[in-house]
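To whoever is on call:

I kicked off a structure prediction for a single chain this morning and the downstream step that reads the tokens threw a length-mismatch warning. I double-checked the sequence; it's 82 residues and nothing unusual in it as far as I can see. Pasting both halves so you can look.
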Amino acid sequence: MSHNTFGHLFRVTTWGESHGAALGCVVDGCPPGIRFKREDIQAELDRRRPGQSRFVTQRREPDEVKILSGFILDGDGETMIT
């Protein structure tokens, strides 16, 4: 078994492969109406970018957040889980 699902209240299942076209995740258990910004998630990904410290990878792959489903955009450009 690959053990790619984590959590109890919010369950996160990852998919994809390292150095492949994409890595992704599905988050289950989010109540409707939670607001967040794509930029908030991107900021967390940017923390693990090469050059942030000597302990992070030296890879040169970009990490870019793309939200594919489960959201609607409101007037402020924020994202709301459906």
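Update from on-call: the warning came from a stale cache, not from the record. Cleared it. Sanity check on the structure: The chain has two domains: 1-30, 31-82.
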